[in-house]
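Notes from the pairing session

We agreed to fold both candidates in a single pass and log them together. This is the raw record for the first candidate, unedited. Please don't reformat it; downstream parsing expects exactly this layout.

Candidate A
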Amino acid sequence: MHHKSNDKITFMKNILNLPIILTLVVLLSFNAAFASDDFPYILHGMGKSSKIYFAYNQKPEGAVSLRIFDEKGFMIYTSTMHDARKAVLFDLKEFGTGKYKVEISAGGTTESKEVSVGDSKKLGNAKMVLPKEVKKNQVEVIYLNNDSEVVISITDSRGNVVYTETSDLKNYRRLFNTSKLAKGTYSFRMEQDGQVITETYTVE
């Protein structure tokens, strides 16, 4: 994978800003993927595509800084975000497939995560299960035989992230109580190394 020394301007043309609805419904306690519980976010590669997805709904005091480094340690992108809520796709097509380090700074804390882009990494082998419907106000989320990380998230019909969790447990089972949610439609999503399953539920 070759490093391209310039131009952030060219790279930024490949950045797709996604619409964010300003009405945020925070109904569940976040299990933050970030080191600080004050800044939960979602960060992952988009399957076999060349894109990285990053989103947050609660910005701490100050700006959110994001930097992307290639496998050789060269910084290929940097951004400072002041939005209260943000969802963005970073397209790394011109830099090639492989593993990238994403460094995120917010609220005085900095964390780095490794993200795989493209088909350089095989699909995860975890057995992930979501029910087809809500039973007794509960959604049972299960995965088995995980060997890396599984990202679990819940979004409402407006695209707001109301819950996110990253788990590296080998086996996982959790009952989500939907009675804590406002009436509406919610999408439950599980992802491991490009393998994704989703189910949509109506809460009445």
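Candidate B (folded immediately after A)
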Amino acid sequence: MSRFEQAIEVGLRQIADRATPSPDAWDSILTRIADQEPFHETEIIMLTDNTTRTKRWPLYAAAAAVAALLVGGIALLVRDDGPEAPAIPPSPTTPEVLPAPGPEAETGTLPAVGSQVAPGTYTSDASGVPVTLDLGEGSTAPWTVVSNDVNGIQLISDDTGREFMAIGRIGSWMSFDEARDEQTRGTASIAPDNVDGWIEANGIIDVDSGDVEVGGRPAKYRMVRLDTTPGATADWCPLGATADWCPLGEQPCLWAAAGSADTVAADATPIPFSRDRQHAIWLVDMGEFEPLIILGIPNLADEDAWFEDVVQPIVDSIQLGEPAPAVEGGTARVPLRMTVDSAWSGTRVDGDPDADGVTPISGQLDFTGGMTGEAMLTGERRIIPPDGDVEGTADYLFTGSIDGVGTGTFSISDEWSKINGNFSFTGDPIQITNGTDDFEGMTGTVEIVIETSTSDGPTETVTGTMTITITLPHSG
């Protein structure tokens, strides 16, 4: 018998010596046992490469149940009206019982694919940016490395993927049609830093969102889940009917995104998004380079507790290296987005009206401020009877420079009206099109404000402001 077992025996004998027997104690114990719910075995299995399945947990559970009954029995053996037993002083011979030491924390590079990860601090530069993070254990099992390459870091907590985390690069998000087409491959059309564009385009439910920091860099945090309304998502499974994580009957499914444009092949399968469960996304700003995405997905009953207790500490521990492309020499970049304000002034000259009362117009506007240059104006207008109001269209070709972008040309077109002397623009937001040189591929919207308008015969002198909100491909 060990010293620990001797100490337990001594303690129990001291309790028994002080106890005043109750005449109905044994009957009470039997009654309590009869009132217990039926015991159902619960199997919890920890597998490694060299272990076989066992059923030790039912034995441990049964032992715990016996221990609980013993404690209850001791309590019943003490009569309610008897004197309270004094506290048992610690035995000088009782050894201090310390918890068994756990595995020593590791520090270093993330282990090979297929390896279980001991708790520790690890670094990986698989995504082009060095990422250092503290890993504990998943709530169901130790983490196992599934991927650690250009596709990013992927971890699962066991072979069923009940807990999944990934850290990698996002090159694009799926539009409505792309997300629902089973044959979609390669890159997508929504810019990588525009996660909200993907959420809005696909009717994704935004459970929680905010602007945060990860590793000292700005990040967008989005907790999302699928809209499971019939018809809101696809009726196929991204990995087929036999996929463990999305078998038939466990839709909805969508394509979500593609990896870095520097690494994704034209026939690559997109990143899927499935089941009615919460997905936590952190989209970390990498400056001009494609953002880093951190993704957490549970298949657990208590999703909120998992995000708080397992995932958030990992995210909080992350340290990041300097921004860089997904692969050395990569050219993929996020679009350049900016808003530019400028002032303008110019003239508009009316031509001769045709037989239908439509009058051609032409003119020139000069710009100062964030846009510097000139815009040539062509268009037409007509009188609206009976009050003499005016409506028309105008096309502008701007030639010049935009601060922070460069030089080139672009076009805008608008529809306008002048009712009771007041100008307004109708229809959809005015769009920027046909960019050349440094403006090639530029898209955006235009807001025009006319501040003054003075007519002198066929010539009208006007002043105003223009605000353009632009998106420009930013290539490395």
